[in-house]
Every structure is written in C-alpha cells, then in structure tokens.
Amino acid sequence: MSLVLGLTGGIASGKSTVSHWLAEYGYPIVDADVIARQVVAPGTIGLRQLATLFSPAILTADGALDRQKLGRIVFADRRQLAQLTAITGPLIRQEINRQLVALKHAKKELIVLDVPLLFEGHYQQNADLTMVVYVDGSTQLQRLMIRNHLDEVAAKQRIASQWPLIAKRQMADIVIDNNDSLAATKQQVVKFLTQYGLQK
C-alpha cells in the first residue's frame, strides 16, 4: 500500500529543496508547480482561457504565457488571483488525481504530493501525512527578495497570497524547520524517512 505524503511550505521556504531530496531517494513526485505549467502551455485550453480573461497582453511574442506579467496582475489584486485559480485549479486537480491513481496502481512505497497550496486547496485530503517546510517570516522575505529579484513590496504581496506559514505549521503532521543550514534540514528529512521505514 502506498503512503502519500502531502508536502507544502511557503514561497521561498525551501519546499522545493526537500522535494528534490525525496526525488533523489527515488520517490515519485506529483509536482503541482510542474502541472500548473503544463496546463497553461501553448496550445492548451487553460492558456486560451487566461488570454481571454486577462487579455493577450499576458502572452509572449511566441504565444507562451508571460508569467512575470501575469504575476504582476494577480499578486496585486486578490480578485484577479481568484479568477486565475478558478481557471487553472480544476485542470491542476484533474491531473494530480490522474497521477496519484497511476502511482498507487504501480504500488509505489511513498508518493510525494508536492503542492504549495496544499491546505488552501484542500489537497491534504489526498494525503496520508502532511509535511510543511517552515521558515520564520523575516527569513522568508529576505530569501524571496534575493531569489526572485523583487523589492520588499512585491515580495510581501506574493507571501500574502498564501496562508501564513505559522498556520500551515499548526496544521501539518510533520514540520521541517529550514531556518538553519541545509545540512540540518536534510537531517530532519532523513529522520522522517527512517521513522517511517523508508530510508534507502
């Protein structure tokens, strides 16, 4: 029987790093970020719907989604963000469910369901356990500003588009504290795998 781990965090909290480590151990990742890109790739119904809603100005010259332009629109206006989610959310959920069914059928020991909005989107219902990668607010802000080359206002807008990490921390079964070094964070991941008999 497969164990489904719902993995989440906040933007720039280190969730993707933990997901990468779990993939290196050989566990399959159902990655909502990857799926979110796939459902709005050129030629998809998702991209056509976004261009209709937000105008073709959100497209690049070659017809792909200009994520920076769209980000500036939706992260500055919660109503616009809700409209984006209304289009992409069902498409993402459908593909996540398809992948989970296939991996369970293949009897994978551990399946990692990597979803930034795990709790916001109620994806925890698809998981047996939930894990949050946690950092404090000031660390998150600084990391996001550096990583995405954002000013403080833009970075705070993006952080505010998700639930506070402290709330996710309270809801999760397992908390990975990523305030310290990467080595310390990885040690916590290894401890989780060992605890559940998953260490390879």
Mind sketching the topology for me?
Blueprint: E1 3-9, H1 15-24, E2 29-31, H2 32-38, H3 45-54, H4 67-74, H5 78-105, E3 110-114, E4 129-134, H6 137-148, H7 152-160, H8 165-171, E5 174-177, H9 182-195
Helix pairs in contact: 3-5, 6-7
Summarize this entry quickly.
This is Dephospho-CoA kinase. Keywords: ATP-binding, Coenzyme A biosynthesis, Cytoplasm, Kinase, Nucleotide-binding, Transferase. This protein is α/β, with parallel strands linked by helices.
Describe it for me?
The protein has helices at residues 15-24, 32-38, 45-54, 67-74, 78-105, 137-148, 152-160, 165-171, 182-195, and strands spanning 3-9, 29-31, 110-114, 129-134, 174-177. Strands 2-3-1-4-5 form a five-stranded parallel sheet, sandwiched between helices. The chain contains nine helices and five strands, in the order E-H-E-H-H-H-H-E-E-H-H-H-E-H. Helix content is 52%, strand content 12%. It is of the alpha/beta class. The mean pLDDT is 94. The protein has one domain: Rossmann fold. It is globular, with a radius of gyration of 17 Å. Its main location: cytoplasm. Catalyzes the phosphorylation of the 3'-hydroxyl group of dephosphocoenzyme A to form coenzyme A. It comes from Loigolactobacillus coryniformis subsp. coryniformis KCTC 3167 = DSM 20001. Its EC number is 2.7.1.24. Belongs to the CoaE family.
Radius of gyration: 17 Å
Q: Give the strand content.
A: 5-15%
Record field, number of beta strands: 5
Major β-sheet, in short?
Answer: 5 strands, parallel
Low-confidence stretches: none
CATH superfamily: P-loop containing nucleotide triphosphate hydrolases
The run of helices and strands is: EHEHHHHEEHHHEH
Helix content: 40-55%
By CATH, the topology is Rossmann fold
What count of structural domains?
1
Number of separate helices: 9
Report mean pLDDT, rounded to a whole number. Answer: 94
Query: Between the first and last Cα atoms, what is the distance in angstroms?
Result: 17 Å
Strand order of the largest sheet: 2-3-1-4-5
**Shape-level CATH architecture:** 3-Layer(aba) Sandwich
Identify the overall geometry: globular
Pathway: Cofactor biosynthesis; coenzyme A biosynthesis; CoA from (R)-pantothenate: step 5/5
Enzyme class: transferase
Subcellular location: Cytoplasm
GO molecular function: ATP binding; dephospho-CoA kinase activity
